[in-house]
């Protein structure tokens, strides 16, 4: 009977070791996913910041080339879509929404004839996005 018990104990030990390995793998994979999402957020927030800088320059140069405004706004929209697709973080999503609204307001101002719209709300919202993406 001792032989059966030893075999049973080994089987339980092996099963527990396998379950622990699966649990550890899942924890590491989940941790890596979180790190990858955070890095994606930081990278895209940096790209958004570059687009916002270009938007500011486009506003300054609007008299020379008004198409730069539209191109800059489109670039920010694209970057926001990238972040929105890659995160489920409520703070990041709120910052993305706020920045999207600020971009929409600039776009509306341009449509209404404002050749030098106030982009400070866009700059502020981009800063907020950078804050929530930074761990």
Account of the 3D structure:
This protein has helices spanning 2-60, 67-86, 90-111, 120-133. 85% of the residues lie in helices and 0% in strands. The chain is mainly α and 135 residues long. Helix 2 (67-86) runs antiparallel to helix 3 (90-111) and helix 3 packs antiparallel against helix 4 (120-133).
Mind sketching the topology for me?
Blueprint: H1 2-60, H2 67-86, H3 90-111, H4 120-133
Helix pairs in contact: 1-2, 1-4, 2-3, 3-4
Quick structural overview:
The protein has 135 residues and is mostly helical.
Keywords:
135 residues; mainly alpha; 0% strand; elongated
CA radius of gyration is 25 Å
Portion of residues in beta strands equals: under 5%
Secondary-structure-derived class: mainly alpha
Outline: elongated
* End-to-end C-alpha gap: 57 Å
Q: Main beta sheet, described? A: none
Average residue pLDDT: 73
Tally the beta strands.
0
Q: Pick out the low-confidence regions.
A: 7-31
Order of helices and strands: HHHH
């Amino acid at each position: 009977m001792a032989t059966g018990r030893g075999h049973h104990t080994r089987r339980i030990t092996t099963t527990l070791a396998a379950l622990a390995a699966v649990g550890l793998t899942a924890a590491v994979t989940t941790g890596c996913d979180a790190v990858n999402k955070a890095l994606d957020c930081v990278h895209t927030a940096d790209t958004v910041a570059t687009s916002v800088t270009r938007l500011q320059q486009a506003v300054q140069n609007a008299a020379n080339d008004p198409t730069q405004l539209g191109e800059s706004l489109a670039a920010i929209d694209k970057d926001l879509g990238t972040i929105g697709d890659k995160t489920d973080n409520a703070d990041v999503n709120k910052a993305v929404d706020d920045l999207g609204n600020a971009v929409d307001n600039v776009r509306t101002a341009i449509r209404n004839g404002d050749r030098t719209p106030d982009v400070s709300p866009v700059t502020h919202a981009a800063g907020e996005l950078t804050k929530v993406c930074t761990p």
